[in-house]
Protein: Proline--tRNA ligase
Organism: Thioclava atlantica
Amino acid sequence: MRLSRYFLPVLKETPAEAQIASHRLMLRAGMIKQQQAGIYSWLPLGYKVLKRIEQIVHEEQIRAGHIPLLMPTLQPADLWRESGRYDAYGPEMLRIKDRHDRDMLYGPTNEEMITDIFRSHVESYKQLPLTLYHIQWKFRDEVRPRFGVMRGREFLMKDGYNFDLTKEDALHAYNRHMVSYLRTYERMGLTAIPMRADSGPIGGDDTHEFLVLAETGESEVFYDAKVPELKLGDRQVDYDNREEVAGICEEFTTLYARTDETHDEALFNEIPEERRQVGRGIEVGQIFYFGTKYSEPMGATVNTPDQGKVPVHMGSHGIGVSRLVGALIEANHDEKGIIWPEGVTPFHVGIVNLKQGDVSCDSACEALYRAFAEHGLEPLYDDREERAGAKFATMDLIGLPWRITVGPRGIAANKVELTCRRTGESEEMSAEAAVEKVAAIYAAL
Amino acid sequence: MRLSRYFLPVLKETPAEAQIASHRLMLRAGMIKQQQAGIYSWLPLGYKVLKRIEQIVHEEQIRAGHIPLLMPTLQPADLWRESGRYDAYGPEMLRIKDRHDRDMLYGPTNEEMITDIFRSHVESYKQLPLTLYHIQWKFRDEVRPRFGVMRGREFLMKDGYNFDLTKEDALHAYNRHMVSYLRTYERMGLTAIPMRADSGPIGGDDTHEFLVLAETGESEVFYDAKVPELKLGDRQVDYDNREEVAGICEEFTTLYARTDETHDEALFNEIPEERRQVGRGIEVGQIFYFGTKYSEPMGATVNTPDQGKVPVHMGSHGIGVSRLVGALIEANHDEKGIIWPEGVTPFHVGIVNLKQGDVSCDSACEALYRAFAEHGLEPLYDDREERAGAKFATMDLIGLPWRITVGPRGIAANKVELTCRRTGESEEMSAEAAVEKVAAIYAAL
């Protein structure tokens, strides 16, 4: 993309209403625009990041054998009357009447609707196990929306639901979700720690939250310093292998890591003192096993091998897709702006032309632009008539992980400068070498 | 995907409520489930088609230089009060109050909000031309939703908006949209004819609808028999070249083609009699030029080269993404089921194992499955313990363009059967030859 033809409305001033770094930086980098309290337009740069995150979530869900579908944003109130939640939910539920005065609501979550889909179409245990998920906009009418997309009212969430014959099967689904989530966050360059959690209004016997460590997190967290060092890395996982999947879950949940909701001081104090960590965390996902809480009242049953009929065991599993954009920035920024991990960056590399209009600089930049495209990478080429300082400031603000600077002196010596946004380190090399180096970094992801 | 692990709830019975082929077939093929009047869940097979269509729309918009973003589904009423449409819109607008009693609405279209984004961030003519678009769920509270996703209430639409300094520039944007739409529909295997249209409630000086010929279309259409023969084919288009783009528009709009709204009997009768065609059409897109209708009342102005200030010239351009799924089926089906064009098929090829459990059949199917994946294609492998007849009926119903049948007799002779869904013709060949043939068909798209 050529910046002269893009729509990247960066702000020079820091918006007064933004209290945390991610909100400030998303506004300044032209990623979002607030349309009303807690409701945002995703401007082109923000939309690109949102799509990258969504894509990673899809890929990892499909890898785990989960099946995508899409439920609508609006739901009939009657479904929620069946589960008893229509009256229980409170003012965070956005209630709507249509022109025929029928009660509807903007879905804050989808347990009822997915259970309705299941009971309409599945009759036999032979059709299990089954895990269905979607990535769809939700609405929760927060009384005080704040922190930008971190606590918005209209937000994008992945929510998945498993249907299993037995509790044991459902706990395998739970474990499968935990492992797929670990891989999802790692691919984004995030360390998200699974922590035992309270079940809250959705209910459930077993539940973990995934928390990203960040000073601005809403939860206080207590953990063993060894926990953030745990990595899945590039190991291959057979999601059908119960022992293997359970083993990974054990590896990631045995050491102490809890939020203030479930914190146990005595257990915490058993950790060697030098490893005891207290900090703050941002919740970016949660997994639940809740058994037959919805299948029983809503009649989601299957025939069993011995001619019986039983309600299925279910769980629900969420990833906050739009919230992740904020969490990623909270965990990856400095005083100059955002620092995108390679896995989610909106553009793979920035090209800065120090002397727009100079024939050799222009043609070197165009050649770089084409070379990256041939590697399947998307560069953002700052081809504006602007001072070098302004171009650098924009690139630092929007946070592309790699920047190539092209100037007349360098080009005369067949050199460009490759700069790493995270370390600030620059290196001179030929344009070809710079392309190869950046391409190799992305190929290794 | 292995069918034994998929969620494909095909129906044996024809649902009584469905009046047209696409609605019937989408229900029978397990593509959608109605959740309330005019509001559908997209089950896995339907969701896959929806995503393929969305992807083609994105690719062609980006190719034309248009920039994607994403506006929220809910909008503040105040924006619509500025344009005067809040009171004018009528009961099709779904009006909502939040917990603080603020007036909101579920967006039926986005002229106001995109104009608000523009005026907040663009000041100079130098930032033009600019075309922004999104693909987002909309809501229109139809009094009698019907025909499945063809006239639903919650529907997915691509809507794009151009901002230009002059009328001449805006008409180039209009033409650019026309050409990009022609290519979009062609890639889906559809013949969609641009027809001069009435401007309707959005207002506008210049507008064309795109209609797909189908007996169940809601509009009567009158056209020269030569019009449906016009094709863009694989010609390369330079979207910045005004003459070239205008030339293509002329090529596609000079021959007579109109809906009943703008039909002119005298002009129609000038066509040689044997070429006069009367039929029905489904609207799958519309482009509008409407000048300063929104930019003036909403103050979307830019500074001009001579220090003046003028409201920008705008247009809006829509493609009915979810409706296209229905339109595609109306135009591509027979008595056995759907016939997907290769460009939008949910799976590229079906594999039918005639003798599940037979070692040679099973291993031949597994080898085919892997071979297609290596070509970047997605097969649907019917690995269920089912009669051949039931497997064929399912494949015919869901309409994958190509099917490979593997049976013990064929495998003994190193043969499989490759069947074309559209023609019904079958051919025996080696498994390798079948993979190569199918891969070549998709590679040519």
Remarks:
- Chain B has a mean pLDDT of 96.
- The domain at 349-443 of chain B is CATH 3.40.50.800 (Rossmann fold).
- Residues 167-187 of chain B form the longest helix (21 residues).
